[in-house]
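Sequence and fold
=================
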Amino acid sequence: MTEGAGIHAGELPDDLTATEAAMWQAFRSGSVYDLSSGDAVVDDPHGGHPWGPERTVRARTVCRLLLDGPAPLAGRVASLKLAGVQISGTLDLSGGTVTPYVEMKGCRFEQEVRLPEARFTTARLVNCSVPRLEAARVHTEGDLHLPRCRFHNGIRLTDAHIGTDLLLNQAIVYRDRSGRSIAADGMTVGQDLQAEMLESHGELSLRSAKVGVSLSLRGAKLVNPYARLALNAPQLTVERTLYLTPAGVGSPLLSGTTPARGTRIQRFECEGGIRLDDGRFGDAVDLERARFTFTEEQELSLRRVQTPELRFLGEQPQRGKVVLSGARVVTLVDRAGSWPGPGNLHMGGFGYENLVPQGPFPLDRRLGWVAAATAEYNPEPYERLATVLRGAGEDEDAREVLLAKQRRRRETLPLAAKLWGYAQDWTVAYGYRPGRAAVWMAVLWAASTLAFAHADHPPVNPDGHPTWNPALFSLDLLLPVVDLGQAGQWQLHGGWQWLAAALIVLGWILATTVAAGATRLLRRG
């Protein structure tokens, strides 16, 4: 019988240490191999207390068990379940197929774990200390769990395929030599990607990643003072919701639930830029109470994002920019105090169909929101807001928005056009307040009637003329086109001629502005 055949039949290899031999037997029975001492300080895998040979197994022995291990005991399922074990050497399963279930809790790895192009059913590393996880193109049929682990030189999951869930809850990940904490470009996760209360020191890269259900970064802290981006995720696809929201601190940590009253809350915090350009989110992007710390050059970039709902409810960034150019949202849920000030908000081509403000958001602040996004005059944000308000039945507010647009446009015009704009504004508010025309007309008619009652008015034709009526005479001057048979029947001299001419000009101004406003109203209708 060959050595390999003996191993598969259950015989122990000759080169195993006593610790490894016990692990070998635990593997065959599918039981947990626990070398913890019971002292929390000593057993802390992230602490400095040394673990001796009595708690150490070689990585090559672990690889042998996983890739070509012995048959299970009768009636048992072989699996590798380690607790409080130190693994020496590099655990290299590159390109291998691992059939047994793998679970390691509170373990310490001396060197990096290499899993590129390996295939697993389910693998769980919980509260482990790992110098680096190299797992590009790894494939799991089930979960990949890495909660509470610490990775000192980053994680690489580029083009990985996770069959169900990827868990990174409460993990701490430091950057690698390229400046990335987690490199997961092109990764596919079948169900949820949970990274709640994750600490990422470096760039978290999820370019072109796909998540089958939701991506949760509740309570996460992303820090990257070394470069421009802390979260780099253009073309990210999430079938349901991206959560950049608070998490409840305590146990159990239940994903997706609202923390109970009195629970200590940990917000999502990001020190460094966020790039979500061209992302697709099936339900929502939720920024409830998110806190952003940017430099002047950094930004929260949501260019061309598409989602049914954007919940923009975070803290106002003190520096940096928020960019929504080209984004498409059905419902915008926002708060007045969440948006940055003038020059730091860009919304060119930003489309939304409904506005649901949380808390007071008066129209003057909403107009300030639009003005903050348009350093130079751009009619589109005003027209979009007016359309949304009109669709919600707020016709008066919609008219105020369009009036604000005309006033903003006026500042870009040459002097003559600007003066004409002021005239339209003062008289009928660019046609958006047509009632003003009637008021002006009534005032002018009354004043001119009183004035012409004292005017010298010899008739043009002494033999045939109507009776002098200063009220009809004034109205005939004020109304363009309409002839009441008074204006041409009387001669005026001196200042009375100038008064008549002024009334004719003012009448034409009122009529023209009313006509322009009516045209705009008909065009919108």
